[in-house]
Amino acid sequence: MSDLVFSSWGDATVDSRKQAVDAQAIELPKELSNGTSLAGIMGWDGIAVWGDSHPVDMARAYARGLSDNSCGQCIPCRIGSHVILEAFERICSGAGRENDAGEIKRLSERLRDQAMCDLGQTCGKGFLDVIENFGKEIDGLVADKKSVPRSEYITATTAPCKSACPAHLEIPTYVELIKKGRFEDSLELIRRDNCLPGTIGRVCVRPCEFDCRRSNVDGPVQIKFLKRFVADYEIERNRPTRLPEKEPEGEKIAIVGAGPAGLSCGYFLSQLGYAPVIFEALGEPGGMAAVGIPDYRLPRELLRYEAELVRKMGVEIRYETDVGTDVKLEELISNDYKAVFLGFGARLGTSMGVEGESDDIVGFFKGADYLRDVALGKDVFTGETCIVVGGGNVAIDCARSALRKGFKNVKIVYRRSLIEMPADAVEVQDAEDEKIEMLILTNPNKIISENGKVTGVEVVKMELGEPDDSGRRRPVEMKGSEYVIPADACIMAIGQAIDLDLIEGIEELETTRWKTIVIQGLNRLAMVKNGVGVFAGGDCETGPLTLIGGLAAGKEAAYQIDRFIKEGSSDPMDEWVINKFIEELKPYDKAEDVGQPCSTEPAKIHHKPVAERVTNMEEVEVGFTHEEAIAEASRCLRCYRLMVAAKA
Amino acid sequence: MINLTIDGTPVQVEKGQTILEAANSAGIRIPTMCWMKKMRPIGSCRMCVVEVEGLGKPVSACDTMAAADMKVTTQSELLHGMRRDALSLMLVGHPLDCPVCDKGGECVLQDMVWEFGVTEQPTPGAQPTRDIERYISPMIKQWADRCVLCARCVTACKEVKGIGCIEIKGNGFDSYIGPVEGVDCISCGECLSVCPVGALTDGIRDEKARIWQSKRITTTCGYCGVGCQFDLNVLNDKIIRVTTTDHDKLPNFGSLCIKGRFAWEFVDHPDRLTKPLVRRDGELRETTWEDALHTAAKKIKEVRDAHGPDSIAGFASARCTNEDNYVFQKFFRAVIGTNNVDHCARL
Ligand SMILES: Cc1cc2nc3c(=O)[nH]c(=O)nc-3n(C[C@H](O)[C@H](O)[C@H](O)COP(=O)(O)OP(=O)(O)OC[C@H]3O[C@@H](n4cnc5c(N)ncnc54)[C@H](O)[C@@H]3O)c2cc1C
Ligand code: SF4
Ligand code: SF4
Ligand code: SF4
Predict the structure, then answer these.
(1) pTM assigned to the model
(2) Fewer CB in 10 Å around end: N or C, chain B?
C-alpha cells in the first residue's frame, strides 16, 4: 500500500482511495528535527499514513506499544491489549483468523469506554479507526493468508501535562503515587528529572496545569502544589533523602552560574560520572530563585537545602567567583575542563529610560536590584509610598516585598489593563488581598526628585488602541491626562538584562540583539574551541524566562555534554527530538469533551491571613494536608497517550 | 446535600460521595470486584461502570463523585456486555483450577462469572510470563496465576496497614504482584484477607475444608485488649484456619495482626500445658489444681511473713479478661498488701 495517503488524525479525514491527494494534504510533521523521515504515525488522535508503511502493521506496532506500556492496573487494557496484539500479530503474519477483526473491534470498544486511564481509552479509539478504515484490507489479508511487511517504529508515550512541562516530568505517575499514599516514591520519581522539587513545587509557572485535561472538566489538577507536598513531606517527616545514584567522579566540567540551569546541569553530570565545578559570583546558590523570587514565596532555607543535596551528589560550587573578573572564561575553556556550560542568567536590572531616572537618587530602584538587595539582607530604603512600574511577576514581587519592608502604600502602575497583565492571576489576587493598589492604563512619564530624593512620579493615562505584534491591544497615551502621584520611592520592574561581560573577547560565541547566547538547537551547543564544547541554557540563552526552563536546559546540556565527550557527537539526544515532535502533535486539546462529570473542584490553596503576612518575609502559602493531597491527586485522569511513528 | 437519581430512584447524598456510595445508600447494587468499603476506590476491575446522562461514555461508579442532578443508569445492555467482557478477560490465563483452589465456593470471580453467565475461557492456553519472585511471607502462599490483579492486597497493605511492601510489577499482560524492594513485610495477612480469589492462601496448615464443610465460629481475639473479631474455621473439632470475611465489623473491620491471624497453633500443640505443675525435689511434676493452689498460697504466705508484703510483686497477663485482671490486682492490694502489681500490656 505504498501509494496510500490516509489520515484520520484530528477532525480531518484524508483518504487517497476516495479522492486523489498527496502527502501534503496531511498537516502533520513528516520528519523529526534530526532529519529522520517518517512514513506515518498512529497516536491518540488517529492514524496517518503517507509513505511506505502498512496501516495494519502500524496498528500491530501500536498494540505492541500498548501492551508494553500498559501499567497493568485495569482489566480491559492489561489483558485486552494482549489479546488485541495477538490478533494483529496473526493477521500481519498471514495467520489471521476469521473472527480476529471482530474480536479486535469488540475489545477496542471496551478499551475506549471502560479502561481506567486515557492510555487504554485513546488506544481503543485508534484501533477502531483502523478497523473502520482498513477492515476490508484486513479481511483480504486473512482470506489470502497474506502477510504484511514490517516497518521500523519509534514508540513513545506522553501526556498533555508531561509534554507541556519543559523538563517533561513524569506527572501522571508521580501524581498517581500520591493518590496511593506513596509520597516518598513520588518524590523519588520527581527527582529523576528535577533537582529542585520543593522549589518548583512552590514557584513554577506551571505550564503543565494550563494543559491539564482535567481543566476541560472542572479545573486543572494542582500539580505544582502536589509536588510541593511530597517535597515537604520528606523534610517534615525527617525521611531519608532518596537521591539518584551517582557514578564515581570522572572528568571535570565547568559550569558558570549556580542558578537553576547550572545546578541542574551539575546534578545530571554527577549522575553521568563527571566532576562538575560551578563558578558562582554570589555567595549563595539558586540564582534568581534566591535573589529574585522573594522569601515569602520561596523560603531560602528550602532552596539552600535542595541546593545542598545537589552538592552532595558531587557537585562542587565555588562561591564569590565571578567569571570574567575572578577567573576568565577563556581559562575555563582551555584548562582542564572537558566542557563548559553557561548558565549565567540575566542578572542586570533594567529601566525604562524616562526622564528623571538615576541610580543616584534615593528611592529609585531597578526591580531586580531592589529584590536582590532585599534578598541579600541589605538595608533597603523605606518610606511612605512606593510606585512599582510593570505588570509582570517581577512587579508583583517588588510590590509585595516593598510592603513587607515597611512602605505604607504600594501602587503598581501598568500601562495596559488587568486582562493583559502578564503576571500570574493568582499572584495578582494575592497582591490585591494585601491592599496593593493597581493603577492600570497608566504609564510613568517622569521621575520627580528633590535634593536627590524621589518625591513623586508623573504618570499619564492610557487607552487601548489597535492590537500590536503580540496580539494585545496597544496602549496609547491620552494627551493631557498627566498627573503626579506623590511618592518617596519608585521601582522599575520591567525586566532584566543579560550581563555579557564574561564573554568579551570570545568571538566564536554568537549572541543576539537581546544579548542572548545563540545555540545550535536541541543539542545546546554554543561553540567548540580547542576541542572543548561550550553549551548554554537558561535565562542567558532564552532571555528572562522560567525556573523549569532553566532546569530542563541544564539537564539537556548534561546529557549532550556526555554524548559530546564520549561519542564526539553533537547530535541531539533522541529523547529531546521525540519530545519536540510530540509537542508539535499537540497532545492537549482544549476543546476535547473528556466525558467526566464536573464534580470535584481543584483543592483550595490556603494562605496565611493578610495581617499576619504583610509584616514579614515568611512563607504565605500553606501546604496540603495528607487528605487534601490524596483527594487532589485522585482528580488526575492519568492521560497517558501512546504514539508510534513509522520510519520511512 | 446533592440530589441525583439512580435508575429512576431519587437519592440524596453528601457532597464528596461517589456514585457507588450513593447507590449503596439507596440499596441499589452495582457489581464490584476490587472495591472495599474500608479502602479508597481502586478502580481496577471496571465492573462498576455506569451510564450518566449527558456523558459520552460510561464512567466507573467507585471513583466518580456524585454530582447534583445526575441521572445514573446502572443496568443496560451495554453495561452488561462491558461487565461480562471484563470478567471473561479475567479468565484469560486464569488456571481454572477451582476444584483444588482453597477459595472454591467463596471466590468472587467464581460467583461473578456464574452470575454473568460467562461460560467460555477466551484464548485458552494464553499464559502470562510472570517473573515471579517469592512472596514476602512464608505464612502466605502466592498463586500468581490465579491473581486477577485487582490490587486489593496492594491497597490494603499500604492503606490499612501503612506498610506498602507489595506492588504491581511488570507491564501489561505480564504484570504481577511482587515485593517492594527495601520494605519489610510484617506478615499480618491483610493481603490474604482481602484477596477476592485464591491467589493468596493461608500457609499454616495443610488441612483444608470447603466453606460448607467447616464451621466458622466468630470469636474475640485473646492476644490483646482491642477485641478484634475473627472466625475460627473448625473442622472435626480442630481449628484449621482463622479468617475474617466481614470487613464492616467493628472494631477491626476484618484486619488482624500476625498473632491474631496466624499464631493460634498453640491451641492444640502437644507441648501445651493442660495440667498444673509444681516443682518438687528440683523437678516439675504434674499435680491437681487443689494441690497447686494450696502450694502457691502457702509459699506466698511464708514469703510475706518473713520479708513483708513489698517483697512480692504480681504481674498479670493481657490475655486474661478485664474481670480476672481486676480481681488479680485486688488480691495483691487487699489480701497480700502490696501495690507491686503490673501488667504486660503496659510495656
Ligand atoms: C523577581 C523574579 C521572580 C521570578 N519568579 C519566577 C517564578 O515565580 N517562577 C519561575 O518559574 N520563574 C521565575 N523567575 C524566573 C527565574 O527565576 C529564572 O528564569 C531562572 O532563575 C533562570 O535560571 P538560570 O539558571 O538560567 O539563571 P539565574 O537564576 O539568573 O542564575 C544565574 C546565576 O549565574 C550567576 N552569574 C551570573 N553571571 C556570572 C558570572 N559572570 N560569573 C559567575 N556567576 C555568574 C548569577 O549570580 C546567578 O546565580 C523570576 C525571576 C525574577 C527575577
Ligand atoms: S495504562 Fe491505563 S488503561 Fe492501561 S492498564 Fe493501566 S490504567 Fe488501565
Ligand atoms: S489529568 Fe493528570 S495526567 Fe491528565 S493532564 Fe492533568 S495532571 Fe496530566
Ligand atoms: S493477589 Fe488477590 S488481592 Fe492481590 S491483586 Fe491478586 S487477586 Fe487481587
Answers:
(1) 0.93
(2) C
